[in-house]
Amino acid sequence: MATLSILAPCYNEEDSITLFYNEIVKLKDKIDGIELEFLFVDDGSTDNTYNKLVELSRQDPRVKYISFSRNFGKEAALFSGLRAVTGDCTVVLDVDLQHPPEKIIEMYQLWQEGYEIVEGIKTHRGKESIFHKMMSAVFYGMISRIIGIDMRNSSDFKLLDKTVVTQLAALKERDTFFRALSYWVGFRSISINYEVQDRIAGKTKWSFFSLFGYAVKNLISFSYAPLHLISIIGIIFLLIGIGFAIDAFISYLMGKAVGGYPTLVFLIILSSGGIMLSLGIVGIYIAKIYDQIKERPQYIIKNKKE
Ligand code: UDP
Ligand code: MG
């Protein structure tokens, strides 16, 4: 009999956990011959999430949990979970039921057919602001081009075979990007579509700034494109500069005065702005390296029941 692990990150989800658990238990009867394992990761919740998890695990021995010392973010929660699940395959999904659990049946069938990764692709993005939609179109457009896979509607809702889980769990990078790493690891994969549902309870943890930070962080961790871009801009500036110099020199030889104080001011501002921006971009990469070599853990576990 195969074991299916259900991995769900939870941050202040006291109202969702029981509903989520019931939905998954209901599902079990619809899939022949599986055992379930639940692994909830309490990502430093400040509400009653932790107590709910402890209570649930007392009632049902299939329920395991990990609890962080503070909020470390969803990526950390997912990766700590991947390091602890024991199932033959693992489904990763949100506890707020925005990822429809009944899709697990289809995912599981595909796994039985031999697929090692089943990617959940959003057909309908649910309630998101126009601005959010635009930002994510730009970001995923860029990421897709960089890693050569269409990631525009990808999500964290996935089924992963044990071998894939082992590979992901062994990664040592500190800033993980789960959504893209599951493509990066390779293996035999297939996609299925699903519609994002409304949250059953609670509210989203994303703000504009946190989404922007998420986009920058992931772009940096998957691409050197920003560095290439500033090199190219640097070369263009250099060529323009050489052009100006030649022009000034010719004017000088022809006895014409070289004027243009405003032009000079403009050019200084433009180029120093460009230099500062470039330094900033280089700085982000250096900060990343610094973060990585400090070898601080991605998360700290306070309590667990595995
Ligand atoms: N989550 C988490 N840590 C965080 C933020 C979110 O573990 O710091 C969990 C959250 O409990 C939920 C999932 O990640 O199960 C998705 O979060 P959310 O619903 O806020 O994101 P959205 O669905 O709006 O993208
Ligand atoms: Mg959600």
Briefly summarize what is shown.
This protein has helices spanning 17-28, 49-59, 74-82, 103-112, 130-147, 162-169, 178-184, 208-222, 225-253, 261-294; strands at residues 2-10, 34-42, 63-68, 89-92, 117-124, 154-161, 189-195, 301-305. It has 306 residues and is α/β, with parallel strands linked by helices. α5 packs parallel to α8 and α9 runs antiparallel to α10.
Radius of gyration: 25 Å
Q: How many individual helices?
A: 10
How would the global form be characterised?
A: elongated
Which stretches are low in confidence, meaning pLDDT under 50 for 5 or more residues running? none
Strand content: 15-25%
Order of helices and strands: EHEHEHEHEHEHHEHHHE
> How confident is the prediction overall: mean pLDDT?
89
The beta-strand count equals: 8
